[in-house]
Fold this sequence. Notes:
Number of helices: 17
Number of domains: 2
Mean pLDDT: 85
Low-confidence stretches: 1-27
Strand content: 25-35%
Distance between the termini: 20 Å
Largest sheet: 9 strands, mixed
CATH architecture of the largest domain: 3-Layer(aba) Sandwich
CATH topology of the largest domain: Rossmann fold
Helix content: 25-40%
Amino acid sequence: MKVAISILLLLSSLYTCFAQQQNITKQVSDILSFAPEGEWKKGKHAAFFMMIDSTQTYKNKHPVQCNQCYIGGVYFMLQGTIYNRLPLPVINEDSMEVSLTCKSQELKRGFLAINGIDEKEEVLYSDTLFFNNCKEWKTFRKNVSLCGVVLLGLTIGIRGNDTIFTAKKNVGRKKSIQNLWLDRIEMKVNGKNITDYTTYPFFAEPPLHKEDIMMWSDSLPHSFRDKDIVAFGETVHGSENINCTMIRLFMNEIKYGGRKLILLELPLSKMLYVNRFVQGDSAFQIDKISSIIEFSLFSDAWIDFFRWLKEYNSTTKEKVWILGTDFDVSAYLETELDLCEYLLTINRSLQNSQLRKFAQLILKSKEIHQESIAFFQSQNYFEKELGKQEAQLIQTCLQLIEKVKYEQLSRDSLMFEQIQVMMELFSSHRPVKAMIYSHLMHVKYTSNNADQSIISIPFGALCKQHYSDRFFTVGIFTDRGKTLNYHYLKKMEYCLLNQSKPGSLEYWLNQVPLDSFYVPHSLLPTKLLFSRSVGIAPNEMTEWINPSHQMDGILFIKESIPLQKKSLNVSKDNNTFIYRYKKCWDELKNE
């Protein structure tokens, strides 16, 4: 048990290394010779730290250093990506030279991936500039096309030698031996730096008028009320009034719109517990659900919604299911632990040996879950006792663990697979009508992600390809106010939204003197402009988008009010996880 707990602590710390510095603009702002809007971000599974190396000077400035993660005396292999997407100036030429100046130490390979993107956000080409290990400063160059290119996607990828080394005891921390130092990326046309060209022209869309837009109510507009799947994507996480707007909309659409499937951007393994509660199982308690919401960027008002939905389900034959589109990667064995707690709660009244054995198999599996899945599939009991839908969802959770650990699929592709499973599962007799609440980065139709190391297509784009006109996306935008977000996953912190700038989508929307309204697709801007995005961290990022290609409509809420939480100190420490883990094992042993 002690060894297992030590591994859990180490892996949890390693995830913290991966999760930190998501928005790293301050560290790398001067890598580019120009960057009017947009930020550098870390790609998935990036295992390195970035900092300005004040011990070195090159061309009268300190370079940016990428070095190894050091955790518990162990240096992990240098690997990962940073990426950015930015507009090009107006250049009437067919090509330009891109150069990257760097030096490295113990680097196995490195590359600069370059995407040429047109005004519709379609990738015209992908090209790659490779740079090998070089102990001294060296400049690498490549010519790329400018034909039809408006946006440039840049990704710097690195991988150190396949070694992990440990610092000796009583010696103190060593310096990282796998490093990359970056000076700058330059872009020139006929020897002329592109900063000397005219900047990209910000869009000049005609202003919106009150008579053009639609007043927002707590029900879907008639134009898309009959869509099978309606997805709402907020551009900022952590807004109380946006959460409450969605709750009121869900309640109305459940009562009057025939919606029977509600999907939230929460792990499916956790939402199985919530769903049991709203289905009326008295063994599942609201206190446990409250802890799920407490550690999330969802409003505490959802607790009242779950109570309301439980009461509503008690009055109808066709019950509403509420599930999750996401999966938990924040801690090792988190999904397994969620499933085990869920199964043990069910089994307290059933006292079934097969269900108990299944819970044991899930919790003791350290690598793969083929044994758990095989046992589950071999027992007719599970489908008979739990029902076809719930049995399939449990199996989906186990299969997700395998895919997350070993197939390295993107988060959005896995979310899409979950949506597919649930739509098919609940449409066996007749088509189910569903609603999704997530971040716009997931439900939109094109990708802002220039990171070429992963499949970066949003699940909204995958759903649109699969379901065609049956799928409908609405972006939720706000002009000002505050949000409440995580600060390095340890505590919550308020984020004051920056004032919208001319040329931004928020600025254009804010010209209408209404607190909230809906803009149909026919009025959405058709050219590139920039827009804010706030995820789990209290960092406001800027991204370039073409609204008419990203979504079907916009819900605008002028001011964001931050989430109201009982406490901002909501960090989940390792002791909580260990307590849950031990409690499950004790219950399994005592049965």
